[in-house]
Write a structure and sequence with these properties.
This protein has 454 residues and is of the alpha+beta class. The protein has 12 helices and 12 strands. The strands form 3 sheets. The protein has a 5-stranded antiparallel sheet, with helices on both faces. Strands 7-9-10-12-11 form a 5-stranded mixed sheet. α10 runs antiparallel to α12.
Length: 454
Amino acid sequence: MNTLAVRAAARQASGRSWPVRWFPDGVRLWHFVVFPAVAMGVVILVTRLVERLFPALQAGGAGVVYPLVRTVTITLVMVSVIAWLALLHRQQYERRLLLRQDALETTRDFLASIIEGSGEAIVTLDAEGHVTSWNRAAEQIYGWSADEILGRSIYELLPPEPEVREELDRTEAALRAGRTVRDYEATRLRRDGRRIDVRITRSPLFDAEGRYQGSTGIVRDVTAIKELEARLLERECLAAVGEMAAQVAHEIRNPLMGIRGACEILSAHYPEEHPRREMAREAVLQVDRLNRTVEDLLTFGRPKPTAPVPTDLHRLIDRVLAVLAEDTRTQRVRIERRLAPDLPPVRLDPQQMEQVLFNVTINALHAMDYAGTLTLTTDLLPRDVRLRIRDSGPGIATDALGRIFKPFFTTRAQGTGLGLAIVRNIVLAHGGTVEAANPDGGGAEFTITLPRDA
């Protein structure tokens, strides 16, 4: 249906035509005056003709009955003509009503098809914030079907943070004041609890008397755009870190090795319990820490390409745990292995994945202050292998969960904030995923999922 057809249908549906007519086609006001008068005249002429042909009708007893019959006949003819005109008028009026109803249904179906076919969510709410309409795009964005969400409050789509509800309340106040709120960004919840970034335009709806009846909103999911912007920003940071790492490695790494060697030589000239020997040993430890920072910068800023080979993941885990067991601080840590039997070899880069295991387990040991239980669990999924590393520490702060894998974000005083960022980059390079959560029962858990045929 084109635009002109829609306008014509809407005009016809509203009962307006041009020019304005009081009666349907074929019936006019003068018909109710002329047709009965003509019919009455015809009847009178016929009666006059009958009177001339049959003068006996006016004589004797017939002269009393005949005028009454003539009057009744004229009246019946006039009533019949008027009734016929009224019936014709009613039939044509009903026909026009049906045409208007058809036009309304056509327009409604056309508009409904536009709304349903829209690539953006179109949602209407009543004055109390309950959902009254929900198109197909809204189902795809939020994960709720129309049958599930209709009649429910829009507040069920909000994250629990109070500032989000305050933002919606401010928007509602602007709508009640008659203002349209355009293209504001907000965070909403899908049915599965996942957060999404959306861009919303909302307009108020008022009835004929100016009372606020609700609002209509157009919602666009911009989560992918936000993620792309974050990745572009991260790539820019990576490029900057790569250049800085190269400079740091060139300007600092070699002098650090010289300082370390000098400290070891100096410490050899003092007895084992001499304070200066302890000072030299501490200097060596600090130099090693700086060297690890340089290594992290190089690894993060200029990651090496993966060289995947079939690898026994359990053997890799055992090797990492064996190295950690040599640290005297781990004596109060209990290791629990819950490894899936008959786990097939996984295609991965052993050296890079070893670094992933070191970074995650060392983070877990720091979180537990080297006292507690460290649990490693492997599971064989249809297409993937899943590794879970869980500690018995205090867990991850809620505000840190969303930023824990971002570069240079750390909760430790001496941390660089690159360890988990490197973990994420390596796992993504293997085609896998890594997630952090606070499971029931306390502690923190990192879940690494790797494809079996990467």
